[in-house]
Amino acid sequence: MTRTRRSARRRTHRIRTLLGVGGIAVIVAVVALLGFRSMQTPSGSSSSPAPVTPASSGAPEPAGPPESPQRKRDGPAGEADGVVPEGTTVFDDAIPAVTELDTGFLTALREAATDAAPYGVEIRVNSGWRSPAYQEQLLREAVGKYGSEEEAARWVATPETSPHVSGDAVDIGESDAQMWLFEHGAAYGLCPVYRNEPWHYELRTEAIGSRCPPMYADPTQDPRMQS
Q1: Distance between CA atoms of 146 and 149, rounded to whole angstroms?
Q2: What CA–CA distance (Å, rounded) separates 130 from 82?
Q3: Using CA atoms, how far apart are residues 63 and 76, in angstroms rounded to an integer?
Q4: Which of 25, 33, 65, 121 shows the smallest number of beta carbons within 10 Å?
Q5: Is the pLDDT of residue 51 over 50?
Q6: Which pTM does this prediction carry?
Q7: What is the rounded CA–CA span in Å between residue 82 and residue 127?
């Protein structure tokens, strides 16, 4: 056999060998593909059930915890609780901190304010009537500011004892009005009560035609605050 024929036969043998290997590879691939498809359901989803989540089960996802009434009560106080807008006077009839004051007390304040006006003195109110919730909020803030309930009591009373809650006290805003009332307030029964709070005035009718009673050093010395 010539060299040329032997070379041709070798090339033919190599091609057949390669085709055989490729054919086997193709068959293996086809069988694997068919086997994979046979494992699937007719709908095309896996035969193994997927884990059920709240979204796939159709059940509504649980909502967050409802807001408690206590949280709502602890929200910021407003005018309805006795918060006073800047510039409020004793004549503002739309402000609960003024209109919820004791009637006789408010009358005395307005009489004094009318008489003070010609002297250029305007009696403004920094605080008047307060709701119990607002008083409690102020007390908690005072405890945080001063570090203890004992120290806070020198500045803020409890809702049960505060004359603000009962409508019997005002905090006068301007220093000139405080001074005018300090000099003339007794004629209207309006008296300062605490030395550490020169802005705090209450009605003392026994002072009319006389003088205001001695002041307490601070609210902790006031017998009304001991209950």
Answers
A1: 8
A2: 4
A3: 26
A4: 65
A5: no
A6: 0.67
A7: 7
Q: What is the largest CA-CA distance in the chain?
A: 152
The amino acid occupying position 50 is A
Structure tokens at 97: 């901190």
The one-letter amino acid code at 11 reads R
Which amino acid type is present at position 77? A
Say how far apart CA 197 and CA 144 lie, in whole Å: 20
What is the spatial distance between Cα 46 and Cα 42, in angstroms, rounded to a whole number? Answer: 9
What mean pLDDT comes out for the span 78-86? 95
Residue entry with tokens 């609960």: 96
What does DSSP say about strands 197-203 and 169-172: parallel, antiparallel, or unpaired? Answer: antiparallel
Q: Letter for the amino acid at 196?
A: N
User: What are the CB-based long-range contacts (under 8 Å, 24+) for 89-95?
Assistant: 89/113, 89/122, 89/123, 89/124, 89/125, 90/123, 90/124, 90/125, 90/170, 92/125, 95/125, 95/128
Q: Which residue has the higher pLDDT, 197 or 34?
A: 197
d(CA 145, CA 188): 35
- Within its chain, how far is the Cα of 210 from the centroid? 48
- Cα 106 to its chain centre, rounded Å, is 33
More confident residue, 13 or 151: 151
Structure confidence at residue 226 (pLDDT): 83
